[in-house]
Write a structure and sequence with these properties.
This protein is α/β, with parallel strands linked by helices. It has three domains: 44 residues, no CATH class; 81 residues, no CATH class; 226 residues, Spore Coat Polysaccharide Biosynthesis Protein SpsA, Chain A. The protein is built from nine helices and 17 strands. The strands form five sheets. It has an eight-stranded mixed sheet with strand order 8-7-6-9-13-11-14-12, with helices on both faces. The chain has a three-stranded antiparallel sheet with strand order 1-2-3, with no helix packed on it. Strands 4-5 form a two-stranded antiparallel sheet. A hairpin with a 5-residue loop joins β2 and β3. α5 crosses α8. The protein starts with 10 loop residues before the first strand and ends in a 26-residue tail after the last strand. 37% of the residues are buried.
Length: 364
């Protein structure tokens, strides 16, 4: 198929092995010169109306219908049980003071608050109702030349994380579905991770867990609810990595395990999804390992666990799958390069259809 001149990318060579289109900014990384590609110039971004970076809109109608169907199935599976009057009032009191309430509905999940607060099995999407496990979750993202973030956010929603703060390095394409926290200077993966974890600790000082995900992953469906029944493994870990590399998982039985301290930080493969206990999140932030713009995050966290005598805990099968092909570890926001081949491809993965039942982990 022929593409009319003017509609193809106009390539300019940058760092060795990297080309950038002068029109749309798309990056091509590889040993060979780029092929002819249809150019898609970026449309100007609409100005956001809210200081938090969100759009303030409820979920789309189709998603609300899908969520309603799932909620009714959960309610029926729980025997149509409702909470008592005292707990119902406590839930409504929290919703009344929440900034995400929009009239009778919640902006995050789109549900009618007065109805959702009745069902025993139903939960606040932000973990605010009394007695609930409260999560503080973030995604770090960078300019990659490919859109992994959209798929990651959808996967996180299916896993149970409906509200995730996105911390963007310079050049990343914004999204309006989640709170957006752009950086005014290039940070690199490690410093952006520290920024995200520190902000979560400030926004959610009483959270039960602090999770930071990268922007090129898929998460097992139902993972959040299942984890709430698992955390924390004993002894209390320095960090829980939801990603487990094939090399590390080889020969291990299903379940949680602590990586041998002698293998840290060399074998702390893949900082794709870290979950910190509150005390250790604050401990990490109080004395983070020395870092630079190209510091390997997994190495830094592994070294911190070893130096502080804290377990680096993982799970077999892996609860997270790595899907990115473009590395975020670069010398600047304009450099793009393929992810180097590594011996740490994802281990046996729990899968998108995974049901959060411990007995089923052996046969995902």
């Amino acid at each position: 198929m022929q593409v009319r001149e003017g509609l193809v990318c106009d390539w300019a060579e940058g760092p060795p092995g990297v080309w950038e289109c002068r029109r749309c900014g798309f990056h091509w990384a590889g040993k060979l010169a780029p092929r002819v590609r249809r150019c898609r110039p970026k449309q100007p971004q609409k100005k956001k109306r809210h200081g938090c970076g969100g759009c303030g809109k409820k979920p789309k109608f189709a998603k609300q219908v899908w969520d309603l169907a799932k909620s009714l199935a959960e309610f029926a599976g729980d025997g149509l049980r409702t909470v008592d009057t005292e707990e119902y009032a406590a839930r409504l009191s929290v919703c009344d003071g929440c900034g995400e309430r929009d009239g009778a509905r919640c902006r995050v999940c789109g549900c009618v608050v007065a109805l959702k607060a009745r069902g025993r099995v139903w939960r606040c999407p932000m973990g605010k109702w009394p007695g609930e496990f409260q999560w503080a979750a973030a995604v770090t993202t960078a300019r990659r030349g490919a859109d992994y973030l959209t798929g990651t956010l959808k996967s996180l929603a299916m896993a149970g994380w409906l509200r995730v703060h996105v911390f963007a390095d310079v050049g990343a394409d914004p999204v309006d579905s989640q709170p957006w926290h752009p950086s005014d200077r290039w940070l690199g993966p490690y410093q952006n991770f520290l920024r995200a974890l520190e902000a979560l600790a400030d926004i959610y000082p009483n959270a039960d867990a602090y999770a930071v995900f990268q922007d090129d992953i898929l998460v097992s469906r139902g993972c959040r609810l299942w984890l709430e029944g698992q955390l924390w493994p004993d002894p209390l870990p320095g960090v829980v990595s939801l990603y487990t590399a094939a090399e590390i998982a080889a020969g291990r039985n299903d379940g949680w395990f602590g990586l041998d301290p002698a293998l840290l930080p060399r074998k702390a493969y893949g900082a794709l999804a870290y979950v910190f206990p509150p005390a250790h999140a604050k401990k990490f932030l109080s004395s983070p390992p020395k870092h630079g713009s190209r510091t390997m995050l997994d190495v830094a966290v592994g070294r911190w666990c070893r130096e502080n005598g804290l377990p680096y805990v993982q799970h077999v099968p892996s609860l997270v799958q790595h899907v990115g092909e473009v590395s975020a570890i670069t010398r600047g926001p304009d450099e793009q390069r393929p992810r180097a081949p590594r011996p740490w491809t994802t281990a046996r993965h729990a899968g998108d259809g995974w049901v959060p039942d411990v007995a089923q982990l052996a046969n995902p």
